[in-house]
Every structure is written in C-alpha cells, then in structure tokens.
C-alpha cells in the first residue's frame, strides 16, 4: 500500500470502533489498533477489521526479552496483520527475535507483516530524555541511533516524529519505512503530543505513512476532518 494514513482506533470497545467506521463512511481505510482496543477485544477485533478489508497496523509496541517477543510475534503474524512494532529500546537481539517470530508465524505464500521499531515516542521531549531518563543526547541523536540499530537488526522501518526524518534519511536507505504519529492540522490541539507536524509538512519531508487519531475521532465532524487530513497528506484536489 502506498503512503497510508492510518486512522488510530483508540476506542474503549470494538463496538465503538466499528460503529465509528460505519457512521462516518470510513469502511476500508487503513487503521491502527492500539493497546486500548486490543486489550479489550483481543485478536477478534483484528480479525473483524481484516475481514472487512482494512489494512491493519497492530500497534502493541512489544518490549520484552527476545524469547518472549519471538513467541508473541509468531502469534501476531498468524493474525495476518500488515504492520507490527516493538520498542527499539529492547535492543538488536530482541528485534532479530521479533523478525524471526514473524517469519515463523507467517503462512506460506503470505508476506510477513512489516516490522517497525519505535524510536522515541512523539510525546517525549528533550528535557524528559535528558533530565528524567538521564540520556545525555538530543532526541534526534537517539532516534537516529535507534534507527540505525533497528535497520541492522532487520526491522523494515521505524516509528518516529517527522522532525527526525531528514536526519534518518541521511544515514539509511530510502526503502527504510518511516511511520510518523503526532500529526496535527495547523490550528489543531496537540493533546499530549510534543513533536508534531502537519500532514502537509510530513508529506514534504518524505514520510512514508502517518497516524491520525484524536484529530479525527474527537472532532465534531469526524468525516470532514478525515477528509481534510487525507487531502493534505495525499495532496489531492489542489
Ligand atoms: O511515538 C508514538 C507511537 C505511537 N503513537 C500512537 O499513535 C496514535 C496517535 O494518536 P493521536 O490521537 O493522533 O495523538 C496513538 O494511538 C498513539 O498510541 C504515538 O502517538 N506516538
């Protein structure tokens, strides 16, 4: 799929998520299932969304010892999701194990899910990194470092903020997938996100895919807002 915009289905239940899709004519759009929805509904919601024709990014951000991550990824691959992720902070051995688990769990003839590694969350600031986590680097330095390590360990790409895209592109091949949450329209509410950009800017920077949640799901007119994000991102009708 070329340059997807993933709608983050951060809803308390599957009923809420499916109703939202139906109410606002979002059938078949790429979606992201995160912890809130998955921990409530489990694999069933993923199966339902796949049956309904959605491209599914399962955003569970695994972070555990390599053996555990390998077994978990084997099970996630069997759900035939399109994208999964781990925290890059789990290290290269864990990322290699994730990749191995995905290959083991993928049915013959299918493509394994894309494996992305989360670098620094888009809610992280340089102050948090340096003062709370005591990492004496800039956000950009840690993100590029995680991206290089993830690439060498076999990840297909990373989750980062669009702020770091240029720096990553200087170091790694263009085929390395850069997926960016923290996307807001010019006058949008940032909520708890700290490193945000507009869909327009993300496109200009060469981001491969974006995630949009509350900008659509909490809007007064969700369908209209989805179309606005989509239009800026894909540069249609201009
Ligand atoms: O660094 C990260 C990694 C994941 N996310 C997830 O993306 C969406 C963003 O939602 P908004 O409502 O558009 O802020 C959300 O599901 C996060 O869990 C992220 O924001 N940043």
From TrEMBL:
Its EC number is 4.1.1.23. Substrate binds at residues 10, 32, 59-68, 122, 184, 193, 213-214. GO terms for molecular function: orotidine-5'-phosphate decarboxylase activity. Pathway: Pyrimidine metabolism; UMP biosynthesis via de novo pathway; UMP from orotate: step 2/2. InterPro entries: Aldolase_TIM (IPR013785), OMPdecase (IPR014732), OMPdecase_AS (IPR018089), OMPdecase_bac (IPR047596), OMPdeCOase_dom (IPR001754), RibuloseP-bd_barrel (IPR011060). GO terms for biological process: 'de novo' pyrimidine nucleobase biosynthetic process; 'de novo' UMP biosynthetic process. The active site is at 59 (for ompdecase activity), 61 (proton donor), 61 (for ompdecase activity), 64 (for ompdecase activity). Keywords: Decarboxylase, Lyase, Pyrimidine biosynthesis. It holds the Pfam family OMPdecase. The keyword Lyase applies. Residues 4-229 form the Orotidine 5'-phosphate decarboxylase domain. It is an enzyme of class 4 (lyase). It catalyses: orotidine 5'-phosphate + H(+) = UMP + CO2. Belongs to the OMP decarboxylase family. Type 1 subfamily. PANTHER family: OROTIDINE 5'-PHOSPHATE DECARBOXYLASE. Homodimer. Catalyzes the decarboxylation of orotidine 5'-monophosphate (OMP) to uridine 5'-monophosphate (UMP). This is Orotidine 5'-phosphate decarboxylase. It comes from Pontibacillus chungwhensis BH030062. The lineage of its organism: Bacteria, Bacillati, Bacillota, Bacilli, Bacillales.
């Amino acid at each position: 799929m070329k340059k997807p915009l993933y709608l983050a289905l951060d809803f308390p239940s599957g009923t809420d998520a499916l109703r939202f899709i139906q109410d606002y004519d979002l059938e078949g759009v790429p979606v992201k299932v995160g912890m809130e929805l998955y921990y409530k509904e489990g694999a069933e919601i993923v199966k339902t969304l796949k049956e309904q024709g959605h491209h599914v990014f399962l955003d569970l951000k695994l972070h555990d010892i390599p053996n555990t991550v390998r077994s978990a990824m084997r099970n996630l691959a069997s759900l035939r999701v399109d994208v999964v992720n781990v925290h890059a902070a789990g290290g290269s051995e864990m990322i290699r194990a994730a990749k191995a688990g995905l290959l083991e769990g993928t049915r013959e003839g299918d493509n394994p899910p894309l494996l992305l590694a989360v670098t620094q969350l888009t809610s992280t600031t340089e102050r948090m990194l340096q003062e709370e986590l005591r990492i004496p680097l800039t956000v950009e330095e840690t993100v590029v470092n995680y991206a290089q390590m993830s690439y060498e360990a076999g990840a297909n790409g990373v989750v980062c903020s669009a702020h770091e895209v240029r720096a990553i592109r200087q170091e790694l091949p263009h085929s390395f997938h850069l997926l960016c949450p923290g996307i807001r329209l010019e006058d949008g509410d940032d909520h708890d996100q700290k490193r945000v950009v507009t869909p327009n800017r993300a496109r200009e920077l060469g981001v491969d895919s974006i995630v949009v949640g509350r900008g659509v799901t909490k809007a007064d007119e969700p369908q209209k807002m989805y179309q606005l994000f989509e239009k800026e991102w894909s540069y249609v009708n201009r």
